């Protein structure tokens, strides 16, 4: 237990002391290696081995694609498309916010990017139309988590690589229905609150207007089709499709929508480098951390501990969700996927969860964590964009937490929600 105590104890102490997550992972790994009598020379070797993966090359490409499309005038097109589809409902702009996030999530794959991009447009628009500012912010931040489930999501690539043997194409297809379920759950909650608060309706639905907006948005939506159809159809690998999508995104943003000039492209690439530096150092550090977990037999011991509490699959699945939700409150998304997957996946498989289903479950849990203090990065971004106190935004978000938990429980206990589409398309 000495090595495990040093590894996990030092890690969580540093997290509570608000160390940068990469430092916390790296230092705890170094202390563990020393306690095991290992040379620190092995640390950089394990780090390099962790990022020495062809499939991981898809991560920087997907992030670059999302930044280019997000900066290239795509947001306004997708908002207009969503408005033509659901703006006629009571609380129409809230429904537009949720549906636009579903569309935009398939391009950015990032809840933070969704909140920053769509939120900066939709929150002021909703306030001007008479919606409460905190309600508007709560809708924006919760719906942004749809983008974590709708492909192409770089977090899915990270999970597939960490889990080992999980198809990226199957994960991509698995995300559509859970993402839609989350959107529907949030739409129902928004509608109830809109009726209670008598929020306004938009224009009546017009098939002509919808077709017109679809024509304007089709270039953005095609980027998702290129990736998903290419990967699932076996035309490209995930990495190849991501690289093609970057070129396509560049051409659409600069020459079709003209939302970016070449100076803007370079600025976007600088932002990508900042993000990639954080993501890749985390992957490298977490690979070394994961090796220590394996050497100390932590996955086996964790599985034995959890199953010793209860052998009921229902109880074990609920415990897995609680563990992931708690981790989401104190850690960011990528580190949870990288560190918790090797520990919890064997437990999930032992009670009958498919690795694909568990991956979707984990990603949604992490998404909820992004909205909860003290480390809720998307919550902080939403509060900053809306210029609202975080405490009031959290209070307004409480009903939407309930909607997200309902979706999470359905995904956890109904495998077909995650597995039906991958099996139908032959991806699984």
Structure keywords:
2 domains; 22 helices; mainly alpha; 428 residues
Summarize the structure.
This protein is mostly helical. The protein is 80% helix and 0% strand.
Q: Would you give an account of this structure?
A:
The chain has 428 residues and is mainly alpha-helical. It folds into 2 domains: 1-40, no CATH class; 53-425, no CATH class. Helices cover 80% and strands 0% of the residues. The protein has 22 helices and no strands. The chain has helices at residues 2-16, 21-35, 42-51, 58-71, 74-86, 92-108, 111-128, 133-143, 146-149, 154-163, 168-174, 176-197, 207-232, 238-256, 262-295, 298-309, 313-330, 333-350, 355-369, 377-386, 390-413, 416-425. The two termini are 39 Å apart. The mean pLDDT is 84.
Average pLDDT value?
A: 84
Count of alpha/pi helices: 22
Distance between the termini: 39 Å
The total strand number stands at: 0
Strand content: under 5%
Number of domains: 2
Helix content, binned percent = over 70%
Oligomer: single chain
Largest sheet: none
What is the rounded Rg?
21 Å
Shape verdict: globular
Element pattern in H and E: HHHHHHHHHHHHHHHHHHHHHH
SS-based class? mainly alpha
Strand and helix layout:
Blueprint lengths: L1 H15 L4 H15 L6 H10 L6 H14 L2 H13 L5 H17 L2 H18 L4 H11 L2 H4 L4 H10 L4 H7 L1 H22 L9 H26 L5 H19 L5 H34 L2 H12 L3 H18 L2 H18 L4 H15 L7 H10 L3 H24 L2 H10 L3
Helix pairs in contact: 1-2, 2-15, 3-15, 4-10, 4-14, 4-15, 5-6, 5-13, 6-7, 6-8, 6-12, 7-8, 7-20, 8-20, 8-21, 10-18, 10-19, 11-22, 12-21, 13-14, 15-18, 16-18, 17-18, 17-19, 18-19, 19-21
């Amino acid at each position: 237990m000495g090595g495990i105590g040093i590894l996990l104890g030092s890690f969580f102490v540093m997290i509570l002391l608000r160390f940068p997550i990469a430092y916390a992972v790296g230092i705890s790994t170094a202390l563990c290696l020393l306690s095991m009598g290992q040379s620190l020379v092995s640390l950089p070797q394990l780090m390099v081995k962790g990022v020495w993966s062809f499939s991981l090359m898809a991560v920087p490409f997907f992030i670059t694609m999302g930044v280019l499309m997000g900066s290239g005038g795509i947001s306004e097109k997708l908002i207009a498309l969503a408005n033509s589809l659901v703006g006629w409902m009571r609380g129409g702009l809230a429904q537009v916010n949720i549906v636009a996030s579903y569309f935009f999530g398939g391009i950015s794959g990032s809840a933070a990017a969704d909140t920053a991009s769509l939120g900066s447009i939709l929150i002021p628009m909703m306030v001007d139309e008479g919606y409460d500012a905190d309600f508007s912010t709560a809708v924006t931040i919760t719906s942004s988590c749809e983008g974590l489930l709708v492909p192409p999501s770089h977090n899915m690539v990270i999970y597939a690589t960490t889990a080992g043997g999980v198809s990226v194409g199957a994960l991509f297809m698995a995300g559509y229905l859970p993402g839609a379920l989350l959107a529907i759950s949030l739409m129902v909650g928004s509608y109830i609150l809109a009726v209670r608060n008598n929020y306004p309706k938009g224009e009546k639905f017009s098939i002509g207007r919808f077709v017109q907006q679809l024509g304007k948005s089709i270039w953005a939506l095609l980027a998702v089709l290129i990736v998903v159809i290419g990967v699932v159809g076996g035309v490209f690998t995930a990495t190849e499709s991501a690289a093609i999508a970057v070129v396509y995104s560049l051409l659409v943003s600069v020459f079709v929508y003209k939302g970016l000039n070449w100076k803007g492209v370079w600025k976007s690439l600088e932002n990508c480098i900042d993000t990639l530096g954080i993501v890749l150092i985390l992957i490298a550090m977490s690979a070394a951390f994961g090796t220590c977990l394996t050497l100390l037999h932590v996955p086996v011991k964790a599985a034995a501990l959890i199953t010793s509490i209860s052998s009921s699959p229902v109880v074990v699945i609920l415990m897995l969700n609680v563990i992931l939700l708690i981790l989401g409150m104190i850690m960011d998304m990528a580190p949870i996927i990288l560190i918790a997957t090797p520990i919890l996946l064997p437990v999930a498989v032992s009670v009958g969860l498919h690795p694909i289903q568990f991956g979707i479950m984990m990603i949604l849990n992490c998404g909820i964590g992004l909205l909860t203090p003290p480390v809720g990065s998307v919550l902080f971004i939403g509060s900053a964009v809306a210029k609202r106190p975080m405490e009031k935004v959290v209070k307004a978000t409480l009903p939407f937490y309930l909607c997200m938990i309902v979706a999470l429980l359905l995904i956890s206990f109904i495998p077909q929600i995650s597995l039906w589409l991958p099996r139908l398309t032959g991806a699984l």
